[in-house]
Every structure is written in C-alpha cells, then in structure tokens.
Amino acid sequence: MLVIMDYHVEFNCAYAFYSCPMKEFVGLILYIQPKSRRDILLEYVKNVQPEFMELFVKRAPKQVVDAMRQTVANMIGTLPPQFFSVTVTTVAENLAQLMYSVMMTGYMFRNAQYRLELQQSLDQIALPEPKDNLDVSDYAPGTQKKVTGEVITWNKITGPEKMDAIKYIEFLESEVEELKRQVTRRSANGHNELLDYLKSLEPQNLKDLTNSAGEDVVFAMNAFVKRLLAVSDPTQMKIAVTQTTAPELANLLYWLMVVGYSIRNIEVRFDMERVLDSPPKLAELPPGEDI
What we know:
Blueprint: E1 2-6, E2 27-31, H1 37-47, H2 52-59, H3 62-76, E3 87-91, H4 92-126, E4 150-155, E5 159-164, H5 165-188, H6 193-200, H7 203-211, H8 215-229, H9 234-239, E6 241-245, H10 246-275
Helix pairs in contact: 1-8, 1-10, 3-10, 4-8, 4-10
C-alpha cells in the first residue's frame, strides 16, 4: 500500500495519481508498514474500559477468574463491607508500583494457564487407549463378582499376603469411591487448579512466567498506569496523595489483572500471526476479547 506525501501537486482528474496529468509534482512515497506489537498493545491499553471485565468473566476459564478473585481478596482482605468501612491512602508512586505488579500478576496467570493446558494435553496423550469404550454412567455401582481365586498383595511389614479375589475387587471399589469423595471435597472447598499449579512451582520456574515480558509489554503496562493515574511527573508522584475505599481498590486491582492477562493474550496472538504470515485483524481492536 502506498501513500503520497505531496507538497505541491495540481490534479486535473479524480483518478489514481499515476494516471493524472500534473503540472508539478514533488512528493515522497512511503510504504505503510503493518502495526508493530507495541502499537497494538498501546492501542489496547488506551482504549480498554472497565466494562471489559464483564466479558472476561463470561469467556475466560472459570479457574482463571476464581484465581484472580482469590488473589485480590487476599491482597485487600475479607472484611465484609456492610460492617466495616476500610479506606486506603497512599502516594501515587506507591500506587503505580502496585498497579504494575498486579498487571504483571495477570500476565503471569496467562502464561501459567498456557503451561497448565499444555501439561494436561501431554498427560492426556500419554494415557493408554481404553480397551473397551464403556460409558461408566450406563452401569450401576459395584460389579457382578463371578470371580474365583486369590490375589497376592505386598504388605510393607509382613511381606506377601494372599487375598480372596472378590475381597480384593471390593477393596479396589472402596478406594475408587474414596478418591471420588476427595475430589468432590476439594471442589467444594474452593480448590483452584491454576493456583495449585503456581504453588507447586519452584521460585525460578515462577519467575520464568514473567521473563517473557519484553520492552513492548513493559511500555504498554506503564502507559496504562499513567493513563489511570493522570500523573507522570516524578516529583508529583512522590507527593500526590490518593485515597480510595477497599471495594473500589479491589475492583481496580481486578481490572488491572484482567488487562495484564489480556496483554499476554495479545502478545501471543501477534506472534502467531507473524509466524503464520497473516496480517493483524485491525477490526478486532481493542483486542483481548478473544480469551
């Protein structure tokens, strides 16, 4: 695509420039390059609105939404707002650092989600194919125990022991039922697979989840912080006091986490489009909705 930067041109017709007679032409032809990663990220942080959180909650994986909410609750506290009025006061510089850190946490959540999904996919591939395609829901609990014989099991203290085959089957069935009950209890107690995965990582592996954030990401995050604070002068940042209620701060932190998560989403999509040699979909901007 070409653009003519014309300084003194007289056109005699409305056709393309190369078919139009001109008395005088002094110009510069420039190639319009596709938008860079930084351009796309900046466009997102300049336009994204808090309303995007509602769309995020609908489309993002439930464990991601729950992980973000639990993280914000742990940061703010869980005092019921109907009984306690909590006000947070700090200077803009401290708030800016908190905002950046929370956005990077959202960025980390997205990377952790990628890795967790990949790990689960690989684990699924490694599982052996079932011999019979049986739907468990079609069968009543228990088995018809038309089995005879004995099973040898190993006792860690006394060594090998013989067990009746039917008794052994009943033992296995009770083990399966207990595992099912444990899974149900963990789900009821707010078990979050994403947070558990993050807790299981070594410090260096946890740090690796944010090491992929390059200059463009950091620049976009800082631009978003400046947009929200409306203060950029270093001196003013140290003395400008901000005051907010705990619920308002919680909403802000949740929004920041969503934006950080979406920034990583956009970054990955941009890189994939470059690998596949497809142009960015400008009509989809501000991006991040394709969670």
